[in-house]
Please model this.
Amino acid sequence: MVLAPAKQERGRCNVSRAAVLQGIGAVVPPRVVDNDELSRSLDTNDQWIRTRTGIGQRHWTDAGTTTGDLAAEAGQRALKSAGVDSVDMVILATSTGNQVMPATAPEVAETLGLGRVAAHDVSAACAGFIYALSSAAGALAIGGAERVLVVGADVWSTRLNPDDRSTAIIFGDGAGAAVLRAGDADEPGALLGFELGSDGSGRELAQVAGGGSRELSAGRPPRPDDAYLTMQGKEMFTHAVNRMAESSQRLLDRIGWGVEDVTWCAAHQANVRIINTIADVLELPRERMLVHLDRVGNTSAASIPLALTDAAGAGRLQAGDGVLMTAFGGGLSWGSTAVRWPAMDVLSI
Ligand code: UT7
Model:
């Protein structure tokens, strides 16, 4: 079903509407892969992984489950949380779409029975969910949509080199989604602003080198390893801390929040040491950082909605709380946004 657009004054762009969070939901696949299981095939151990990353386990899909499958399930949960069964746009943040072309969002819309709605993917790696929220907010602001389903989903387990202990221990699969509707800037749930950035000079720090025009136009046979995710962990660690802390501070300054306004910070769940260092730089008590990676690992574009759904489902995150979201990933790309949490029902993951 396509919703009726907002009535617009003739010849005038309607840019005064805020994006208001109406529902949220998330899912991880059932298969748990704990650190001991990885230690059987890799030169690593539970103690190293827990101490250096904070991760105790992650969930990986079984054969046959796609990113689109997880995205649709998370989307279903977000629609239920919002109490609606229609949207007029679907935006899926992912770097592990079902195929190179076309985008996966139209398939998600079809699976959810949403009709011929606008649907597209956003590719911004682990920062994808924030970028997708920003795209949705833009569409809502100009009357291009009345309600948008934003999903962050990734299935990195299919692109991990089983012999690479620096990536195999970190990444988990999952999907998280939010329903945004057009509303007023002073309503609870209104996204209060965005701060986004990128630095293409760091594109090789986290990448899947193959499959794109760079490889295909080079005229050499593809190398099997180019299908895998590679990451220069130390460099990414430093960028992650600096970019998320700077972006968060710029956003807080822009929206007039001090750290006392931040009840919870949902930072990208890559490594608990990154999360703690961001807290220290921002002078936020570490207890206000949401930590979910101990149970799901780094779920890339899904990590922020998963962490929010986990906290809201457990009753820790409550209506009225000030929430700062900040993310960083390959690209390099990063972004932050903030919201005063609205009252809504949330299904536990
Ligand atoms: O989501 C997108 C953004 N991604 C990130 O932000 C990821 C950021 N990076 C990280 O989280 C960390 O850099 C890693 C978890 C990937 C690696 O942790 P680290 O503390 O930076 O380890 P390191 O690469 O500096 O290695 C330290 C030591 C080395 O041994 P030596 O040379 O000191 O003897 C490594 O060989 O730890 C060793 N090591 C491991 N040992 C056991 C590296 N990985 C492992 C492992 N198990 N899995």
